[in-house]
């Protein structure tokens, strides 16, 4: 499992083997480390060791950044280590070329729009929607 949220500087990832959680991490710049279960994976070690410091871009802040790295930077490496590709990072020669992966698209249609409108009117009790 992998999730990142750039607005919150948040990263969550998990790894299970044979139905058992092996590694779970959940962190954000606002909430700090929420979950840190299991031994860090190899790709994490340089981040926790401070080898990827946060680039403040010259901005000084009253509060220091809560981690020795940016969660989204480690999140990109988590994507590579767990799934074989990155989204915003720099692709490596062995990464999966995501532009070459074909996916199916689906469109959901309402088979009976007039019935749906009648149900919505019933639910709203005739009040404007």
Q: What does it look like?
A:
This protein has 129 residues and is of the alpha+beta class. A four-stranded antiparallel β-sheet has the order 1-2-3-4, covered by helices on one side. It is extended. InterPro entries: DUF6928.
Report the principal-axis shape: extended
Query: Can you count the beta strands?
Result: 4
User: How widely separated are the two ends?
Assistant: 38 Å
Structural domains: how many: 1
Topology as H/E string?
Answer: EEEEHHH
Unreliable sequence segments: none
Give the C-alpha Rg. Answer: 22 Å
Work out the strand percent.
Answer: 15-25%
**Average pLDDT reading:** 89
Within the largest sheet, what's the order of strands?
1-2-3-4
What percent of the residues sit in helical stretches (DSSP H or I)?
10-25%
The secondary structure category is alpha+beta
Largest sheet: 4 strands, antiparallel
Number of helices: 3
Give the SSE layout.
Layout: E1 2-5, E2 10-17, E3 20-28, E4 32-37, H1 45-48, H2 71-83, H3 113-124
In summary, what is this structure?
This protein has helices at 45-48, 71-83, 113-124; strands spanning 2-5, 10-17, 20-28, 32-37. It has 129 residues and is an alpha+beta fold. Strands 1-2-3-4 form a 4-stranded antiparallel beta sheet, with helices on one face.
Search tags:
129 residues, alpha+beta, 4-stranded antiparallel β-sheet, 21% strand, extended
